[in-house]
Structure formats: structure tokens, C-alpha cells
């Protein structure tokens, strides 16, 4: 991979060794030509694709469940489903992922599948907070069912 500093060094070394010359005689000052060329090269390098930095600390079941709930709030149900499923891939025993996915299936109209996921979440719930989430999930499915 070529970095912008190595390109700049190459350009300066070419000018100093007179390998690159002003072919049309337009620029009388070599310093001005080198500054102009460096500016053009840096502009081209800066237009390249951005580097995506993966942050493993954000690839946690908790983070994906939080993302899923936010996406549901914005009405992006399919994206929320992917987040809950990713959370389950990372930790198959994480009850809130099953709650979220159960709600998603309820919103999509598959209340039976949603209830099965809630029952699974109920068996996986490890503490009072998770048990409360499961209860709220069942209540939300009941609310969805009454609304239809």
C-alpha cells in the first residue's frame, strides 16, 4: 500500500534528481512546480476510499440488541431482525435477543413464532432484569395481537 508521505518523497526525489522536467517550459520556478505537483498528488490520494475500522468492542450481544431496539423504534424492522439474529449468533443464551426477535416476528404478523421465541427467552433469563424484559415482551405481543 502506498502512503501519501511516500508519494511526496518520491516526487521530491524526482525533482531533485531532475528526472521529471517541465516538458512544456511553462514553469520557470522548480519550487513552484514541485509544490503544485505535490498539491495535486495529495488531492488525488485524499479522494481514495475511506478505511473502515472494525471495532470488536461494538460486536457484542448487548450492543446488537440495543441497535435492534433503536431500529425498531425507527420502523426498520428487517434491519432490527438482523441485529437480534447477530446477537443470538454471538451468544445463543442471551435472553434479550430472543425477546427482541420475538417482538419483530409479532410486528411482522407471525405471533406464534414470536411467542415461541418469548418462551425460549423465559427459559434463558438469568436475572430479574432479563425476566422483566421477557414479561414486557409478552405484554407487547399481546398488545400487537389486540391491535390486529
Description:
The chain contains 7 helices and no strands. The protein has helices at residues 4-16, 30-46, 61-73, 77-90, 95-107, 111-124, 128-147. Helix 4 runs antiparallel to helix 5.
Topology record:
Blueprint: H1 4-16, H2 30-46, H3 61-73, H4 77-90, H5 95-107, H6 111-124, H7 128-147
Helix pairs in contact: 1-2, 3-4, 3-5, 4-5, 5-6, 5-7, 6-7
CATH class of the largest domain: Mainly Alpha
Average pLDDT, rounded to a whole number, is 81
Give the number of helices: 7
Low-confidence stretches: none
Helix content: over 70%
The helix-strand sequence is HHHHHHH
Strand % is: under 5%
Count of the domains: 2
Q: In the CATH hierarchy, what is the superfamily of the largest domain?
A: Tetratricopeptide repeat domain
Report the structural category.
mainly alpha
The whole-angstrom Rg is 29 Å
Shape field:
elongated
Biggest beta sheet attributes: none
Looking at CATH, which topology of the largest domain would you report? Serine Threonine Protein Phosphatase 5, Tetratricopeptide repeat
The CATH level-2 architecture of the largest domain is identified as: Alpha Horseshoe
Number of strands: 0
**End-to-end distance:** 57 Å
Amino acid at each position: 500500500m502506498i502512503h501519501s508521505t511516500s508519494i511526496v518523497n518520491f516526487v521530491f526525489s524526482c525533482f531533485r534528481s531532475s528526472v521529471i522536467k517541465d516538458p512544456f517550459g511553462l514553469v520557470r520556478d522548480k519550487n513552484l512546480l514541485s509544490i503544485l505537483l505535490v498539491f495535486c498528488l495529495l488531492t488525488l490520494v485524499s479522494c481514495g476510499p475511506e478505511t473502515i475500522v472494525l471495532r470488536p468492542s461494538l460486536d457484542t450481544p448487548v450492543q446488537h440488541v440495543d441497535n435492534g431496539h433503536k431500529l425498531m423504534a425507527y420502523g426498520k424492522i428487517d434491519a432490527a431482525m438482523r441485529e437480534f439474529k447477530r446477537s443470538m449468533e454471538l451468544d445463543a443464551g442471551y435472553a434479550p435477543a430472543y425477546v427482541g426477535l420475538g417482538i419483530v416476528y409479532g410486528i411482522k404478523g407471525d405471533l406464534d413464532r414470536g411467542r415461541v421465541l418469548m418462551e425460549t427467552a423465559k427459559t434463558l433469563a438469568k436475572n430479574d432484569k432479563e425476566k422483566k424484559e421477557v414479561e414486557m415482551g409478552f405484554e407487547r405481543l399481546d398488545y400487537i395481537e389486540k391491535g390486529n
